[in-house]
Amino acid sequence: MADAPLAKDLIALTKPRIISLLLVTTVAPMYVAGVPSVLTVLLVMLGGYLMAGGANAVNMYIDRDIDDVMARTKLRPIPSGRMHATAVLAFGVGIATAATWMLAVYVNVLTAALALAGFYFYVFIYTRWLKRSSPQNIVIGGAAGAFPPLVGWAAVAGQLDLTAWLLFLIVFYWTPPHFWALALNKQRDYGNAGVPMAPLVWGEEETIAQMWWYSVLLVGLTVLPVAFGAFGPIYLVSALVLGGLLLWGVWKVRAAATPEARVKPSWWVYGYSLLYLALLFLAMAIDRRVFA
Ligand code: HEM
Ligand SMILES: CC(C)=CCC/C(C)=C/CC/C(C)=C/COP(=O)(O)OP(=O)(O)O
């Protein structure tokens, strides 16, 4: 198709917009863990892009049947008929293999192993298994998206410590409010595709109650590294302000009495969740490197 050449489709298979935030949560921890060279940062960004991009392409191979049914995804390269499923699988596995080799040879083996673990978790535990079988899919499967801070940390420190695992947990607890805010507004799509997302299985009110408690846990957890002396006042104030806004947004969703009244605040929470995570991780790096 003239308006969608192959290169454009290959990039679309990697879900570049999602990767941009994954890379923020990879690179910021590198500056928390130490003082990385520009070359290490660039290598980790390239390796991280190829690994997450490969995972996303394999996700589109496995999900080609449901992507074909959902309005949000039906124009992707496979359901729209522009690419062969097998070619997409080969592309995904190919770039993830390149990433594994690159990270192992030019960064270190632990970094490569953690990134590959993220790939397997997302492809097999989330996409292949839990996404279609349980409303807890994005809670447990969401751990895949929490690997990037470990990857960045290991690239600089060569090992993992308590702060690295706290960063993993922050992304882990962030995922339910991030995703369910979107899922509340995409129930028809998921219903048509037979994907058991929480709002469909538990109902909206239970899902929103869980979003609230995950957000409370998240904000509590973001403050915890300060108690361990990992961060100072710049980060603490940022975490409290950013977290306060998140709680305010989720509370607005919870306070809305009808599904119609929830549409606006839940879209807000979804959009804000992206800004929240980016700014929180940025604040960590700034706190450690600029004000240390
Ligand atoms: C199991 C975990 C997750 C699930 C199920 C999930 C699901 C989604 C979905 C369905 C979208 C909408 C995409 C679209 O409109 O095509 C989205 C958007 C997005 N997600 Fe997540 N997400 C998860 C974790 C993450 C993580 C860990 C990150 C990064 C740290 C992330 C970053 C983003 C970004 C940046 C967008 C906006 C993309 C855009 O505007 O095109 N997500 N997510
Ligand atoms: C370290 C490393 C390589 C980690 C990889 C982890 C990774 C790619 C996380 C992304 C999470 C994500 C985009 C989920 C989308 O949900 P979905 O697949 O249900 O969305 P869809 O309906 O848009 O396909």
TrEMBL record:
Record has Glycoprotein as a keyword: no
Top-rank taxon: Bacteria
The keyword Transmembrane helix is annotated on this UniProt entry: yes
This protein's UniProt keywords: Cell membrane, Heme biosynthesis, Membrane, Transferase, Transmembrane, Transmembrane helix
Matches recorded under Gene3D superfamilies: UbiA prenyltransferase (1.10.357.140)
TM helices/strands, residue ranges: 18-35, 41-62, 83-103, 109-126, 138-156, 162-183, 211-228, 267-286
GO cellular component terms, semicolon-separated: plasma membrane
Enzyme class: transferase
GO molecular function, one term: protoheme IX farnesyltransferase activity
CDD domains documented for this protein: PT_UbiA_Cox10 (cd13957)
Entry function: Converts heme B (protoheme IX) to heme O by substitution of the vinyl group on carbon 2 of heme B porphyrin ring with a hydroxyethyl farnesyl side group.
HAMAP family: CyoE_CtaB
NCBIfam families xref list: cyoE_ctaB, PRK04375.1-2
Family: Belongs to the UbiA prenyltransferase family. Protoheme IX farnesyltransferase subfamily.
Designated name of the protein: Protoheme IX farnesyltransferase
Species in which this protein is naturally found: Pseudogemmatithrix spongiicola
Lineage: Bacteria, Pseudomonadati, Gemmatimonadota, Gemmatimonadia, Gemmatimonadales
